Amino acid sequence: MTRPLAPGACVGVLGGGQLGRMLAVAASRLGLRCHIYEPGAMPPAGDVAHRVTTAPYDDTEALTAFAESVDVITYEFENIPTRALDLLETLRPVRPGRRALAVSQDRLTEKAFLAGLGLNVAPYAAVDDAVDLAEALDEIGVPAILKTRRLGYDGKGQVRLSSSAEAEAALAAMNDAPAILEGHIDFSHEVSVIAARALDGQVACFDPGENEHKGGILATTTVPARLSAAQRTDAVLLAGRILNALNYVGVLGVELFVTPGGLIVNEIAPRVHNSGHWTQNGCVIDQFEQHIRAVAGWPLGDGARHANVTMENLIGDDIERVPVLAADPANALHLYGKTEARAGRKMGHVNRITGPAGG
Amino acid sequence: MTRPLAPGACVGVLGGGQLGRMLAVAASRLGLRCHIYEPGAMPPAGDVAHRVTTAPYDDTEALTAFAESVDVITYEFENIPTRALDLLETLRPVRPGRRALAVSQDRLTEKAFLAGLGLNVAPYAAVDDAVDLAEALDEIGVPAILKTRRLGYDGKGQVRLSSSAEAEAALAAMNDAPAILEGHIDFSHEVSVIAARALDGQVACFDPGENEHKGGILATTTVPARLSAAQRTDAVLLAGRILNALNYVGVLGVELFVTPGGLIVNEIAPRVHNSGHWTQNGCVIDQFEQHIRAVAGWPLGDGARHANVTMENLIGDDIERVPVLAADPANALHLYGKTEARAGRKMGHVNRITGPAGG
After folding, report:
1. What ipTM does the predicted assembly reach?
2. What is the distance between the alpha carbons of residues B85 and B97, in angstroms, rounded to a whole number?
């Protein structure tokens, strides 16, 4: 049995974006250091990390030195190249483990895994060519969404089809990548559950949040979400089932569609999740510390919610609203230290406290 | 008029201990970087700083390079050598400013300043030699405490006198340093106010906390403190008066004795303060972010208290209690990453949530 990491021990984080930055801050609260591995220069996480390695994911020497300098490895994004993982796994524990990555890196594998657990997912079919797509459209109907199986995020690599006449153009947009057709779900709103599982199997879930997207990117998450007591229980139970099935260690984000017929799992993310940022100001232990606790072999902390919160992402030019937002005492700002505000770039977020916890 | 610091700007912090560490974390939330200046190797703040300079305070070259790399300078302790300040001030704004340091570096100057504001302080007298001490004991009586005027903390450089027969030994313990004799105050308990003042003069105070010491070192701070409504108002008003008199920018700790006759100011600290650590889990904006907001020219945040909290310092071997403390969901841990647990060394603290905010 592994002992919990003690002060001075080092957590290696693959990826140096804002999630890595907030993981590094959480690690510091537990007396731990972070070593960030990131191909890009000047990563946001570098500002608060003990050490940064700037190297690509195919640099065997850099990966080896990184792994040997840390006690455990985790990551802030799920698309880590397989070869890098193959190497890292031989040197240090990687948490969450391979299974969670394999499942979440491929939308088809993910859907099959979730359906295999008896959870509700959208109707889906694999699409490798025009014949597959025609058959899938026959079976699933329109509207539907064609998505690349791998490497999509924030609405990228996705095309909506409202009639089968759009099939050819949609397939062309996939650039020959293996794809999946997903049937349209008539949902009233989307919620997500941020769930955590410790090394010893202990499970804890944060209260579900209700998400709104704009242009395919998460705009806001609000707690409490509009959910019945039964739905709330369902959400937490299904998240726990996913964690256990994956023998998961760390924080997992589960996106759910709320429909009159019940909850439908949209997708899972094997990492801290944008829709869990509200926990920084709504809970004593936030999703970042919960994740570090899990991967460091600590017991999970208390994720009970003490406030009603709306998290709003600050995207691109939204950063110019900071002076106004900062002057409002209801707002807690979390900026990522990025100096260039490109359109669509997540620059920070604001947690707006709307009152003490209550329905 | 200075503009508020924007993402990517850098706050220079003199001192790399746990206070610097938590200041660096707070700065990261606002998108700012920290550059730590610390003579000692491997400072706790270095784990979460963008940059660390390891150099003594008399290294003119290092001080200059440090100042030129940052946008504003602050500090985590008040005993910065005068010559270092003389230099740094010519290169960048130092906040809080010189006046606050001059007052708090010398117990005699501090007492005179506070008394000059019309605030209640213990009876005191300057003691440079045996004649002074004999006169002071005549005037003030026993019990009394003889303290070095400068460089004392956590009870160091202090001797209690219960009779004038102890005068010689007490004076010897001062090692020829200029001293001050302070009369005994018959207080029921000690509280402290963590107050903040922004660049534009805006003032905000956290709710007073009640302090318990063990062996001259702060052991616990509890909110709410035992104070009448009138005493609470007094505490906040007198802190505001001190801030304004010093034209202060940043967070200031004010220690107060509670007596039947009212509040008596014990001492002030021109920095974030151990007795304000509870704000990390009791408020949306904690003392560290409040300090960074002030020195970075931002508006102050909301310091309203949402929880009842007891902060307990983890000193020396207390660090061995961490596994048990971590398993209790009421506890939020804050460890400093120190690997060597010497007796009396502050290794971390735990904020125990005892309920939602209430008297």
Report:
1. 0.94
2. 10
Largest CA distance in chain A: 61
Distance CA B201, CA A152 (A): 49
Nearest to A187 by CA among A238, A241, A237, A227: A227
Q: How near does any CA of chain A get to the CA of B28, in Å? A: 7
Q: Is A214 annotated as a binding residue?
A: no
Cβ contact A7–B47 (<8 Å):
no
Per-residue pLDDT of chain A (359 residues), as tens digits, is 468 999 999 999 999 999 999 999 999 999 999 999 999 999 999 999 999 999 999 999 999 999 999 999 999 998 899 899 999 999 999 999 999 999 999 999 999 999 999 999 999 999 999 999 999 999 999 999 999 998 765 566 789 999 999 999 999 999 889 999 999 999 999 999 999 999 999 999 999 999 999 988 999 999 999 999 999 999 999 999 999 999 999 999 999 999 999 999 999 999 999 999 999 999 999 999 999 999 999 999 988 999 999 999 999 999 999 999 999 999 999 999 999 999 999 999 999 999 999 75
Contact B31 A337 (CB under 8 A): yes
Q: Do B304 and A329 touch (CB under 8 A)?
A: yes
Has A158 been labeled as part of a binding site?
A: yes
Q: Which H or E run includes B347?
A: strand B346-356
Q: Indicate the Cα dihedral angle B246, B251, B252, B255, nearest 10°.
A: 160
Domains of chain A with bracketed CATH: 10-94 (3.40.50.20), 123-183 (3.30.1490.20), 189-356 (3.30.470.20)
Hey, what are A202's tokens? 């202990």
Taking an 8 Å cut-off on Cβ atoms, the answer to whether B326 and A25 are in contact is no
Closest residue to A335, CB basis, from B31, B302, B348: B31
| Dihedral sign, Cα of residue B165, residue B166, residue B167, residue B169 | positive
Q: Which of A31, A327, A337 lies at the smallest CB-CB distance from B7?
A: A337
Contact between B94 and B74 (Cβ < 8 Å): yes
Amino acid identity for residue B329 in this structure: P
* Whole-angstrom distance, CA of residue B59 vs CA of residue A199: 48
Q: Which residues contact A11 (CB under 8 A, 6 or more apart)?
A: A5, A23, A27, A32, A33, A34, A35, A70, A71, A72, A73, A74, A292, A295, A296
Please list every residue in chain A whose beta carbon sits closer than 8 Å to the beta carbon of residue B335.
Answer: 7, 29-31
